[in-house]
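Collaboration report, partner site 2.

Our partner group contributed sequences for two proteins of shared interest, and the home lab folded both. The records are reproduced in the order in which they were received, starting with the first partner submission.
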Amino acid sequence: MSEASCFHNLREGGIVRQLAPGVTARVFPGVHAMLSVVTLEPHSASPVHAHPNEQWGVCLEGEWIRIQDGVEHHVKAGDFWQTPPSVPHGGRTLDSRCVVLDIFAPPREEYRQPGQGLGAATVSPARA
């Protein structure tokens, strides 16, 4: 692995995935973990879904409503959370843009390449 492939910037680069309308991720995969910088535009939603990967999230900018296991949590910049494997989660923004850093372990294999959607995640019929 070259030194250049080990250093990144939160504001640029990565593998781009369009997760939902108004929700874009830039993914940085590693061997045992994966980082994803997710930008959620105002009034956008990440559908409630679940996957077998553990996920941690940090709200870097803005605020949003995080839905986890059926409970809504109002989070703002500086707040962070853990989502255990297979727990349904998603969320929605309010009037402003939000940026979230997601950390997955193990990496989500389908996120190692550009694409659209939530990959192999199971999307719940519940509204985000």
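Second partner submission, folded after the first:
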Amino acid sequence: TGSGLASLELGLPSYLSNQYNLGFFYFQQKEVGFFGEDSWKVTPKLTVSLGLRWEFWTPYKEKQNRLVNIDLNSLSPTSMQVVLPGSTTLSQVPGLPAGVISSWEARGLTAVSADSIHFPSALYPHVWNDIAPHIGVAYRITDKWVVRGGSGTYYWPMPLSQILQSSRSNPPLNLRYQNDVNSNNGNNGVYALTVVPSLSDMLGPNGTATVSPGGVSPSAQNFLVADVNHWNDNRMQEWTFTLEHQLASNLVLKLSYTGNHGSNLQQNWDYNAPVSRYNYQAANGVLAPTLAYMRQLDPNWSMTNSYGVLQHNGYSNSHGFQAVLDKRFSSGLQFQFFYSYTHAMTTNDSGGFSSGGGSINASATGNGSQGGGTSSSVPANSEILGNPTLSDSQRLRLLYTNSSQVPPQRITWSGI
């Protein structure tokens, strides 16, 4: 009818759904680190500090092996395969109802163990090369002038918040039982408006259209993939330079510059992306299918936007200046005044406490925003006008822009 209410009254809703989700995980991770540091007073005016740190985080493990990934080398028009950790089989995953498993099997999903295909056993690679040097220098020019400088490297793994929500929504741990009439026969999403309804399309005692265990949509299924071929821990390299001057006996002025460069940052990439309608029609000379999954290499998986492929090749750069006026407590008065200016640019503007792309109720067609910034995906060539042959670095550069998470200027003061 074109009217949702009228369709419902006739018993002809175009879409029905009911969602099952596992909901809770017991994540485990170990951290090991070694470090050494020392300081030398080279001259009465010059002090040098050196340090070296090595850190290792094990890949996240779920206590009952309720995690899945996809081997990107297995993508094909006929493949819908997930990978389970170690030697785990699908029937060994606790808390996963037989009806959910049979529904996904009917949809075409198969599962293999990581060990059987020589995939990383934990579904994420181990990272062993997090070696972080540090150096600091302080030089007293005069009794009232001091200059300080330093540089250091820092590492951190993927935050748990960015894997928890996304992992529990990956098939077959999550299933939305649905009856999508508009997807019948791949009829460009207009089946309900162009075909005379049959008994199987209708609800009620005489109809069979129900949200059944076999009702997995034929459309592409959302999955957030960790690309084991482009995986690393996030890295930040920072350098600072500070000039301090004593203005009075208890009053100090500090002028500082801080720069940093982030690399190996978590980055979403559009993978197995649908060819844009324009590019499809320009290349084939025919009207493009309305249903996006019919324009993909592998029509089974949706790996774009908020659901995508996680790699660690994002980057950022920041330059900042800070002025501090510090009045130490004397004569009943203490105060501090700070002014800072920062210019930060990045390829991934996700907030530090965001849940990552693909939370349980996120839209697969959204921009990936999960609060506290946006986690944009690097577009595939097939999504860009004219289907160019841009390299990975050129397409990543399209996302490199000013950060919305770091205010350019900030003034702070306090006093007693």
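Feedback sent to the partner group on the second submission included the following. DSSP finds six helices and 20 strands in the chain. The first strand starts at residue 15 and ends at 21.
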